[in-house]
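[step 3/7] inverse_fold.run input=structure_tokens len=183
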């Protein structure tokens, strides 16, 4: 079963037109970014559930934890959840160190791709036939006056979206957080 944002890629034997390729790239990027927003929201729920016992805690939380936009970045939330898992007795007891490290690594891997997908651009005018054939997404990073290409295999991105492991781990952490709060 695939996750809500996953879908089956066209068979590699199917030749894609430039338009089909561009549409596929845009769909994969959009679905991946939507998938990450679910992870981001889940981290927000876990972190806020752990620290906010009632609605009266929110003003202090908003003034001390969130920035001017009242949001914390996905990367910041990954740091926070990693520190919580490492330092909170219940999390340390319930989630073995190897799993805690793997959660942090997987979230950081997803964050890096998310940043590339959100902040880089695809060139849709001159598409290389090799990229279409090999199902490669080529994005360009424009930094300090230089354009650097970045390549992503469509299949690897879809494998990330379709792998339920990280969502299952976050669901377990969310359940553990609720259990801690009830005590």
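[step 3/7] decode complete -> sequence:
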């Amino acid at each position: 079963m695939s996750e809500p944002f996953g879908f089956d890629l066209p068979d590699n034997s199917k030749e894609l037109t430039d338009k089909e390729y561009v549409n596929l790239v845009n769909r994969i990027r959009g679905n991946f970014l939507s998938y990450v927003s679910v992870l981001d929201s889940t981290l927000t729920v876990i972190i806020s559930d752990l620290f906010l016992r009632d609605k009266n805690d929110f003003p202090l939380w908003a003034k001390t934890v969130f920035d001017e936009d009242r949001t914390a970045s996905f990367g910041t939330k990954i740091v926070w959840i990693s520190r919580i898992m490492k330092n909170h007795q219940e999390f340390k007891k319930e989630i073995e160190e190897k799993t805690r490290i793997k959660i942090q690594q997987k979230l950081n891997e997803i964050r890096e791709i998310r940043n590339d997908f959100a902040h880089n651009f695809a060139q849709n005018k001159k598409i290389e036939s090799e990229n279409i054939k090999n199902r490669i997404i080529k994005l360009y990073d424009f930094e300090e006056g230089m354009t650097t290409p970045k390549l992503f295999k469509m299949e690897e991105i879809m494998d990330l979206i379709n792998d339920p492991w990280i969502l299952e781990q976050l669901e377990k952490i969310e359940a553990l957080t609720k259990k801690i709060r009830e005590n």
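[step 4/7] annotate
Residues 18-117+164-182 form one domain.
The mean pLDDT is 89.
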